[in-house]
Amino acid sequence: VADALNRIADRAAEQLILPEGKVPTDELATFRRFLKTETARLKKLHRGGGLGREVCRERARVTDELLRYMLGAVLQAEGQEKWNNEPPLALVATGGYGRGELNPHSDIDIMFLHDGKLMSGSKPTAFLQAVTNGVLYPLWDLGLKVGHAVRGIKDCVAVANEDVQSKTSLFEARLVAG
To answer: Which GO molecular function annotations are given, in alphabetical order (predicted)?
Structure first.
């Protein structure tokens, strides 16, 4: 299993590095090609007797790599040094995707997690807005169903204390990037 997941990361490294200054919306064809190739490979694996859980785990890894490279491209295109003084931001998988199990046609549930300093009152800072838009819009343009949240740590605690489903989702959360 580890070898298969490493091979996915290797293929992503070969295929998903964008030209300098390009953002994911400029290079949708690159991401679409990667997804199409990996989806066909997973379908072949499943039809060849691969276990459903194995296919779901690999699909989650494909999505991890896609998101990592999208986030990296957004940060690079905006000028990494420009963002060096910004508070930390993490891209987190939640729900079934957070467990590392992503079924075909499932929603990709993600959360942009910050320490609370990326909000100015109820509005996101320019950095947070650029990152969330830079990742979400290309995902939607690729036809993916994305459930997303943008939360500070205190927000996560408050939501978890109000809603059992949200609390469970946080138990299953997993760092993707950041």
So the answer is: [glutamate-ammonia-ligase] adenylyltransferase activity; [protein-PII] uridylyltransferase activity; hydrolase activity
